[in-house]
C-alpha cells in the first residue's frame, strides 16, 4: 500500500512545477526478495502545460504567442496561440484570418483535425475546440478588422460546441459589442463543410454555395471561414463576412475567434 505521507509530498512537489516547462520524470522500483536486490527504472518527459491560455496567463505567461496546453479531458497536450493582451489576456484562439495564405475551403476531416499555422492563419480543429469548451464554461470574443484598419468586436457570454456525434453543434450566449450580433442566428445548428451538408437549406449546400465551413442555417449572417476576398466584392456573401459589420459584399481583412473561461 502506498504511503499517504509520500503521496502528499509528491503532490506538493508537482503543484509547484512551472506551467509550460518540460520536465524529466524518473521512477525506480526496488525489490529485495527473494534473493538480493533487484531494481528497475523508467524515464519519461512531460510538459506541465495549463488547461488553456487563461491558466497560463495566471501562472505568469503574459506574452502572446504559441504555447502547449493540456485540457483536463485530453489524452495529449497540443499547441494553441494565446492572446495575452486583449481585454485582460488569457484568450485561446481557435480561428484566425489575416492574409489569405491558407485555404479555408476544406472538408470535414480537415476542420475536425485543424489546419494552418498557429502563428498565422489557422483553424484549431473542432475536436480540440470541443475538448476545451467541455472542460469549463467559456465566453467567446470575435475580433475583426476591415481594410481601412477599423476594428470591431462581438462578445458572447457563453460558447461551446458539442462533439462530432452531434456534428459540433454551436451553443452561444448573450451578445454584446460593437460589431453587431451575427452569431445568435446560428445558435443550435450543426457544423457544415463542402462534403458534409448539415444545414437547414432544402435545395442547396450552404458550404458549397458560400465557399466556406460554418454553423450554417439556411444560410448565414456570418461566414468567417469564407473566401479571402479582401474588401468589397461583387459575389454575394461568400467572403469573410460579418453582416452587421460591412455587410455581405465585403470581405474582412482580419478575424480572430478566441475563448476564455467565464470566471477568469
From TrEMBL:
Q: Which residues form the Fibrinogen C-terminal domain?
A: 44-263
Question: Where is it found, in Gene Ontology cellular component terms?
Answer: extracellular space
| Highest taxon, organism lineage | Eukaryota
Q: Which UniProt keywords apply?
A: Disulfide bond
Q: Name one Pfam family in it.
A: Fibrinogen_C
Q: Which residues form a coiled coil?
A: none
Among its keywords, does the record have Disulfide bond?
yes
What CDD domains does the entry give?
A: FReD
**What PANTHER family has UniProt attached to this entry?**
FIBRINOGEN C-TERMINAL DOMAIN-CONTAINING PROTEIN-RELATED (PTHR19143:SF458), FIBRINOGEN/TENASCIN/ANGIOPOEITIN (PTHR19143)
Q: What is this protein called?
A: Fibrinogen C domain-containing protein 1-A-like
Amino acid at each position: 500500500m502506498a504511503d499517504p505521507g509520500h503521496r502528499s509530498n509528491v503532490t506538493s512537489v508537482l503543484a509547484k512545477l512551472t506551467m509550460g516547462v518540460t520536465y524529466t520524470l524518473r521512477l525506480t522500483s526496488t525489490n529485495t526478495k527473494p534473493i538480493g536486490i533487484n531494481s528497475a527504472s523508467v524515464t519519461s518527459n512531460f510538459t506541465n502545460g495549463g488547461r488553456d491560455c487563461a491558466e497560463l496567463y495566471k501562472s505568469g505567461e503574459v506574452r502572446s504567442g504559441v504555447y502547449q496546453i493540456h485540457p483536463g479531458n485530453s489524452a495529449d497536450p497540443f499547441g494553441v496561440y494565446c492572446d495575452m493582451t486583449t481585454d485582460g489576456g488569457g484568450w485561446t484562439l481557435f480561428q484566425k484570418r489575416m492574409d489569405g495564405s491558407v485555404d479555408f475551403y476544406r472538408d470535414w476531416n480537415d476542420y475536425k483535425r485543424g489546419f494552418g499555422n498557429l502563428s498565422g492563419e489557422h483553424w484549431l480543429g473542432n475536436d480540440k475546440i470541443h475538448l476545451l469548451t467541455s472542460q469549463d464554461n467559456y465566453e467567446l470574443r470575435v475580433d475583426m478588422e476591415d481594410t481601412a484598419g477599423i476594428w470591431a468586436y462581438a462578445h458572447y457570454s457563453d460558447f461551446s460546441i458539442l462533439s462530432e456525434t452531434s456534428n459540433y453543434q454551436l451553443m452561444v450566449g448573450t451578445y454584446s459589442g460593437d460589431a453587431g450580433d451575427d452569431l445568435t442566428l446560428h445558435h443550435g445548428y450543426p457544423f457544415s463543410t463542402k462534403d458534409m451538408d448539415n444545414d437547414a437549406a432544402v435545395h442547396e449546400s450552404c458550404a458549397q454555395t458560400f465557399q466556406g465551413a460554418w454553423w450554417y442555417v439556411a444560410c448565414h449572417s456570418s461566414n468567417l471561414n469564407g473566401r479571402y476576398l479582401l474588401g468589397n466584392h461583387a459575389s454575394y456573401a461568400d467572403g469573410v463576412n460579418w453582416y452587421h459589420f460591412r455587410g455581405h459584399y465585403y470581405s474582412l481583412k482580419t478575424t480572430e475567434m478566441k475563448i476564455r473561461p467565464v470566471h477568469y
